[in-house]
Amino acid sequence: MEYITNIAFALILLVGIVFFARNVKKLIRNIKLGKEVVVNDNKPQRWKNMFRIALGQTKMVVRPIPGILHILVYVGFIVINLEVLEIILDGLLGTHRLFAGLGVVYNVLIASFEILAFLVIVAVIIFWIRRNIIKIKRFMSPEMKGWPKNDGNMILYIELVLMCLFLTMNASDFQLQQMGAAHYVQAGSFPISQFLIPLFDGMSVPTLIIIERSAWWMHIVGILFFLNYLYYSKHLHILLAFPNTYFGKIGPKGKFNNLDAVTQEVKLMMDPYAAPAEDAGEPGKFGASDVADLSRVQLLNAYTCTECGRCTSECPANITGKKLSPRKIMMDTRDRLEEVGKNIDANKGNFVDDGKQLLDDYITREELWACTSCNACTEACPVSIDPLSIIMDMRQYLVMEQSAAPSDLNNMMGNIENNGAPWPFNQMDRLNWKDEA
Amino acid sequence: MGSELKVPTMAALFAAGKQPEVLFWVGCAGSFDDRAKKITKAFVKILNKANVSFAVLGTEESCTGDPAKRAGNEFLFQMQAVTNIEVMNAYGITKVVTACPHCFNTLKNEYPGLGGNYEVVHHTEFLKKLLDDGRITLEGGTFKGKRITFHDPCYLGRANGVYEAPRDLIKKLDAELVEMKNCKSRGLCCGAGGAQMFKEPEKGDKDINIERTEQALDTQPEIIAAACPFCNTMMTDGVKNKEKEKDIKVMDIAELIATAEDL
């Protein structure tokens, strides 16, 4: 029976990891529903972007208050993960504070984990106040009602509870160490949790052991729960920000891709002697009306979005009360992708037409036509998400597949086609300005 | 005045066996819009003054296709692009300057993939270079001490990272450059981009150009400087809407320089 806790721990760990792996597999499967894109240009720049933007958080601090608070939480979680390593090994091996032998280094590590845990708690509380008391505008948009709002708070609660459990675990451990309890080696330095010690005044060793063990178990189980919560929440950015910043657009923001399929058609039209290549199939669908028409990078973007709303708060259309919200474009894309994924799961691996699509059922035409393509959203995004590219792809579908542009734009395009300018002026009059007074 | 402008066409130069230093891509607004034509002329006056050897395509120029592409009509865009590239390549053009950030962006970023490879500069960059090379000189007289705020065109600033050239020119006028709440990489769009210029805006609380004009007015400027014919229109309309057109002028950087030079 002496190994029962080790076995229980190993089982819980295994279940946590297997579930997580299953969700990651599903995530990858869903992203692969998108069109394959070759992203192998300028690798040094891409790695640099990943290091600077994701690891270095450079775009977060454009807004200093949330930026710095976010860095606290981010550094806290990364560093405290070193402690999780010890917890996992202790759990599997039945040891207690396995790394205690590191001596002074261990003390410094534990002390820094504690200080970070405290800072995380402070940051999380401020984040909660910003969302629920101050009600910062970008968290109050229509797309943030219901689940997105609860999800945001849930993440803050989980983080708060995890940090509190961590400090409780340390405090009770410290008290046990001072009481000379068996197995509780004198190790670690507890600059924060020492202040919790008075809470344990007069408690017996067995009671303290129950508190310490409960906190230890709930902390690690909580972490495994959080790991598995990610897939269902907006919080995937903690993992996906890294690939997303790598695959993010490089080069001038104003450069939009030229559609190769169109280039082929145009070449055929311009050259009377050109013949379509023997192996050329039917030209595919132009633009995007559903998630499968988008690229894998765009779908990765959708999973990466953590709904911070910086894009929306900088969007000129949104600022002036139009329906367009770049964040909603990303949330809709993900919601539709999830819906398609579930459809595939429910139908033994095949997608069965559900009569729905991203266009109209999720993203309305009114939203798409409100965009000025100004790139404020892509500039604002701290993790290189590109809502603009989705808007443009969907406009392409509307115009090239459905001829469904607003009539003013049809007039403009008619003018370009007929007389080479967006207005009804004759091309032969293009140089008249030279001689006008 | 107009007759004094020297505006050679590529066709004429080509016939004479000459190649200009740079092609001036006038653009549709610069060719047809009454307000933008003044910018075009101001820029030509400076080019003439600096003895820059340039040419225009004139009646051989056609829309770059930018508004079509941004509206989603990739097909029309590429038709325009391929036609324009054929013309420019036939003339052996290597360098292009334009006063329109939309033409600038499209020519610079989207034409290379279709066979049009040119060195493309915006007129503010070109003017800055003329100044740096001593081909034009600026005496600040006219604008000395005037409060000027600069509106970043999205397709010049965020889209292509050109923030300093227009600002350097304003500073050279001895003017007081005042920045708006949103400027440079966080500049607020005037509302014309993405083909919005050619359609009514969607329903909302306010038009975008009004929002941007309010930001500009907050700086209490005497002049709102623009570097894009469409931004110019939007800001001019915004200033009119606020009934400030008597006090505040909306001027292109080229116009500022031409005026300073008394051209």
From TrEMBL, chain A:
4Fe-4S ferredoxin-type domain ranges (all copies): 295-327, 361-393
Presence of the UniProt keyword Oxidoreductase in the record: yes
Record key words, sorted: 4Fe-4S, Iron, Iron-sulfur, Membrane, Metal-binding, Oxidoreductase, Transmembrane, Transmembrane helix
UniProt cross-references to InterPro entries, sorted A to Z: 4Fe4S_Fe-S-bd, 4Fe4S_Fe_S_CS, HdrC_iron-sulfur_subunit, Helical_ferredxn, NarG-like_sf
Source organism: Maribacter aquimaris
PROSITE patterns per the UniProt record, alphabetical: 4FE4S_FER_1, 4FE4S_FER_2
A Pfam short name: Fer4_9
Coiled coil regions, renumbered to chain: none
Protein name: (Fe-S)-binding protein
From TrEMBL, chain B:
Transmembrane segments annotated in the record for this chain: none
PANTHER family linked to this entry: IRON-SULFUR-BINDING OXIDOREDUCTASE FADF-RELATED, IRON-SULFUR-BINDING OXIDOREDUCTASE FADF-RELATED-RELATED
Keywords carried by this UniProt record: 4Fe-4S, Iron, Iron-sulfur, Metal-binding, Oxidoreductase
A UniProt-annotated Pfam family: CCG
Originating species: Maribacter aquimaris
Family annotation (InterPro entries): Cys_rich_dom, HdrC_iron-sulfur_subunit
Coiled coil residues, start to end: none
Listed name of the protein: (Fe-S)-binding protein
Highest taxon of the lineage: Bacteria
Domain Cysteine-rich, first and last residues per copy: 22-108, 148-235
